[in-house]
Amino acid sequence: MRTIFVGATVLLVGAGAPMAWAATPPDTNGNNIALQGSDTLEEVTKAILATCTGATSAGITYSGGGSGTGETAMSTTPPTQKEAPMSRFFNASAAVCAFSSTMEGLVIGLDGLAVVGSQANAGSACGGALARNTVSFTVSGSCPGCDAGTSTYTIGNGNGGFAGWKDVLKLVYTGLDHSTSTTPDCASPTRKALVANYGKLFQTGCTTGTCPQGLKHAWRRGDASGTTDVFLAALGSPLKGLASAQIANGKPAKNWFCNATPLNTVNPPPFLNSDGTVNSGTTSTGLSFGGASDYLDGDPIRVSCDTTLSDDDGNLVSGDNVCNYGGAGALGTPGTLGLVLPVEVPTNLDANALYNIPACTAGKFGLAPPRLLSPGPLPNYMTPCPGGATSCPCPNGGKLVGTSCWQPYQDLGGGARNYNCLNQQQYVQGAVKNGTTDGRTYNLFAKNANGTYALDGFNVPEDPSSFASGDDTDLTQRYITGAFYRIHMANVSTGSAGTTCQKADSTAQIGCLTQADPCSIGYAGREADTVNANIVALTVNGIADSAANIAKLLGPTDPTTYPLSRKLFFNTLQGFQSLQGGELALARCFGNSGSSSANTGTNGVIKSKGFIPMDDPTVIPFNASGKVVCQSAANSICTAGASGDNGACASIPAGLIQ
After folding, report:
1. pLDDT for 569 beyond 90
2. Closest residue by Cα to residue 617 from 609, 608, 626
3. N or C: lower Cβ tally within 10 Å for the chain?
4. What is the pLDDT at residue 63?
C-alpha cells in the first residue's frame, strides 16, 4: 500500500498554491497582496482583476489554493488578507468566530457540485441517475447495515435516516454505511460489495456487460478545496467540511476519505493531539491537518493498474500512466492503485512540467538527488518501508544512495540527461528494486530535469507542533509525490473511446478522467461535465443539476432543489467597511453586477465561466434586481441555536453594489 508522508512528521497540508501560514506580511493597507481563495473561482477572479485597474495597480494578484486557504488568511493573527473569493460561506471555528459581528459576503453567482461519470456507461447504459432508494445488493460477511435478518443491503433503508444518494456516496468515498455507526470502515464487506457491482451505483441498474470489474476509481478534489467542504457537508453527519475548519482552527481532525486511511491507522509517530501538539504515546490518534491526504493512496480496496502492452516493444498501448510500485510478483507485474484517488493539479506548474514530458530512454537509470538543498525533509514513499527500513524516499521504495535515488532518464546524448520523463511499466532499476515491479511508479513523482522532486508551491509548516502556535519561521513546501492527475495523460483506459486528459485545473481534469476511464466516477464543480460530450452529470436524488433547480436555493425550502447546490461568494471576515486600497477596489469590481446578456460586470464574467449569474432568468424570481447581493452571517454559525443574523450588511459602503 502506497502511503506518502511529507516532512519530518506525519503530515503536511496543501493543495497547490501558497497557504496563509506562509511568511506573508500582514494586511495593513490592502495593497500588494497575492490573494488566496477558491480554485473554483480562480478564472472568475482573474477575469475580474483583468479589468479592475484600481486593484491591479495596487498590487493585487490571485494565487488561489482553495477556499480554506482564503478563510485562514483572513482569520490568522494578524490577517494577511481581508477578503477572498470562496465557493462557500464561512465555517465555524474559534478564529473565524472572533469576527462574528462583521463577517459578510457578496453572493456573486450560483453553482452546483456535479457527480460525474462517462456518458457511455453512467449515462446511456446505466440511466444517469445516482441510486437513491430500493436498490439492493448482497453482502458476504459482516453487514451491520443489512436489512434485518438478511445479507441484503438496501440503499437508503438504514437506521441513519439519510437519503439513498448520500448512502451511496458515503460508502464509496468514506466507508460509512447507513447503520448507526459513526466509525467508517473502508475495507468493509458492504463497501466491497457495492463497488464490485457498478450497476448498483445507479437507480435503474445497467445493461448487461457494463463495467464487469466494478467501479475502478472514485476521483475527488483535495482537502482544502471548498468543493470538498460542500460535498462532505452535504452528505451529513458525522461528516463535515474537512480542511477549512482544521486550517482555521490550527488543529488537526479526522480525515474521512478512504484514500486517507493510513493517516487514521498505520501512520508512524509522532501522533497529534487535538490542539496540534505532538502526542508522546505510541497509538495513533487518527488526527491530521486538512490537506494531508492530497497525495495519499491509502484506500484498502486496491485496483490492479490497467495495462495493455504492444506486441513489438512492450510499451503501453492503453491503460494507466501512473501506478503503485507493485511489490509482489515478477518484474513487470502491474501494481495497484486505490479506489478513491485525489486529483489535485498543481497551479504553480506549466503544461511542460505537468504533462508534456518525453519518454524515458528504455532501461536507462541513473543516480540523481531528489533535492539539492532545502526546503523540507524528504517524504517516505510508503509506510512501512520495505525490509523494515526507517527511510524510503525514493520512487523504487529504497533509501537514498548517498544523497541520490535511482531514477529513469531520457538520454540526450553527450552525457546529458533529462530525468523529467515518462517511464514505461516494464522498466525498473535492477540494482535496488526493493520489491518494485511496475516502472510507472516513477511517474507519480513530478520532477525537474535534474531529478529533483518538483514542489507544488504550497507553503506548509515542517513541524506539526509549530502549526498550532502560529510559528511561521519553519516552512517547507510539498514535494509532488502523488501525481494521480497524470493517470491518463498519454493513454486512456483499455476499451475507452474517450480522450486523454491534460487539463490545467482539477475540476476539468476530474471530468475528463471519468471518460478516459469510463468505469470511474468523480465529484467536482458543475463545470466538470462540460469538458466534452463524453461526460454526464448524474441526477442526485432524481434531480438534475440544471440552473432552474439550483436557483431554487435562493427561495423558500423546496424539495426539488438540486441537493448539491451552492452559492458562490466574495467574502470578508472583517467587513467590507474595513477594506482599503486595492482590496476595496477589487470588492467594488465584484460588486459591479453588470449584465450577463451584455457580457459586462460580474454577471457577465460568471456566465462566461459556466456558472449561473445573479441575473439569469432562473434566478430573477428569487432575486428581482439581478444584482449581486450581500449576505450577512447567521448568528447560528458561531452560536448554536441562535437566531437572526449579525446585520453586517447594513454597514456596507455606499455604492459597493451596483
Report:
1. yes
2. 626
3. C
4. 87
- 337 or 472, higher pLDDT: 337
Q: What pLDDT sits at residue 380?
A: 66
Contact status, residue 67 vs residue 86, Cβ threshold 8 Å: yes
**Residues 103/648, Cβ–Cβ less than 8 Å:** yes
Residue 162: other Cβ atoms inside 10 A? 16
Q: Would you state the cell numbers that stand for residue 595, as one nine-digit string?
A: 449584465
Q: What's 123's DSSP letter?
A: I
Distance from C-alpha of 167 to C-alpha of 171, rounded to nearest angstrom: 6
Three-state DSSP state, 263: helix
Band (pLDDT 50/70/90 cuts) for residue 163 is confident
One-letter-per-residue 3-state SS of 24-50: CCCCCCCCCCEEEECCCCHHHHHHHHH
The pLDDT value recorded for residue 387 is: 63
Cell numbers 482569520: residue: 75
Q: Residue 622 corresponds to which amino acid?
A: F
Whether the CB-CB separation of 447 and 483 falls below 8 Å is answered with no
- Helices in 366-519 by DSSP H: which ranges? 464-469, 506-516
Q: Give the chain's radius of gyration (CA, Å).
A: 24
Backbone angles phi and psi of 379, in degrees to 5: -75, 150
Higher per-residue confidence, 289 vs 46: 46
* Stretch 438-464: mean pLDDT: 80
Q: How far apart, in whole angstroms, are the C-alpha atoms of residue 417 and residue 185?
A: 46
pLDDT bucket at 181, cuts 50 / 70 / 90: confident
* Domains along the sequence of the chain with CATH: 34-110+566-651 (3.40.190.10)
Report whether 431 contacts 420 (CB < 8 A).
no
Q: What's the one-letter identity of residue 325?
A: Y
What residues contact 375, with CB distance under 8 A and at least 6 apart? Answer: 455, 462, 475, 476, 477
Report how far apart, in Å, the C-alpha atoms of 117 and of each of 124, 518, 543 are: 11, 7, 16
Beta-ladder partners of 342: 220
Q: Residues, the chain, total?
A: 658
> Long-range CB contacts (< 8 A, 24+ apart) of 401-404?
401/367, 401/432, 402/367, 403/369, 404/367, 404/368, 404/369, 404/370, 404/451
What's the distance, CA 151 to chain centroid? 34
